[in-house]
Amino acid sequence: MPYKYGRIAGNRREVGQALGKLARPMMSAYLNQSSTWEALRRWREHPYVDELGQQAQAALPEIWEELEGLADGLRMPVKDVLLWNCRGDLLHSTTDGCTSVALKGADGTRWIGHNEDGDPYLYGRCHLVDVALDDAPGYVSFYYPGSLPGHTFGANRAGLVQTINNLRTRLRQPGVPRMFLARAVLDCATLDDAVALLQDLPHSGGFHHMLGSATDPRLISAEAAPGSVSVMDIGTRYGHANHMVHAKAREQPQVITESSRDRQNRIEGIVDGWSPETGSADMLTALHDTLGALPILRTDAADPDGENTLATAMFEIRDDEVTLRVYDRRKIADIALDVMSDPE
Questions:
Q1: Which of 224, 248, 296, 332 matches a 20 to 30 Å C-alpha distance to 344?
Q2: What DSSP character marks residue 132?
Q3: What residues pair up with 30 in beta bridges, in sequence order?
Q4: What is the pLDDT of residues 332-343, one digit of tens each?
């Protein structure tokens, strides 16, 4: 199994504390083996990190309260937890990868599929969390230990679906850290609300957001980076790896790894052959494709980006209904959630 499953309920601080407690037993060992954490240590006590924290607290005070609760549950200093959650805003390259695909079916069903690629150490050590909040729709999300949920794959009980791909932008400028923004999207009630959030707030890092909704027929690809947000209605089919490919954004300075380039080329070639009659089985096959030296499904211990596929998600989006199924590489995991229903 690529994850453990847990339910959490409460106010912002209580939810953060519970997330921290889930991660606390392994957090020290996780960080000690992490090359990303090693690279981040030079940023400790840097005034730029304080500025990112101030921007997050001012723009998204509810998410900041969750971060404070997370630090409490982890029994770590808030500054260190902030630093960890700003890793993609501070470093040009981190061990966060991913590939996403999307498709509109002939009957109106929308599909979003996603490979969650990350630090191989996390395989089998993550959680799928089902969170009920006092003041927001609540959500289901894949949860990395010590990280705000939302920067992986998830959906909320307003019917909004989000998957995230890392963008390795070379720009660094003050703004709201990207993981705070991804978490805030899961509080949005509509697709328009999510797009407005991404367009209105300043970004200090880069993410690709694949967005869908049970209350909206559109599927949205958004490349959000410092100084630029490109939003595109994807039409019928789409695939995205880990670099900016929108015409508006692709000329920005960025790191394009060989893995990301190969996966983008491969997924575009596969997706070009899809039609509205293509089903979720074909999408899953694409995400589990192993062709080439740097394949879409990443299981090589010597992966050049230091990433492996931790789980695969398939979202089926219908009017007033979203269903999530999570797969362990080629083996289906034992969970299927109607994320629009109330938690038991």
A1: 332
A2: E
A3: none
A4: 544 444 555 444
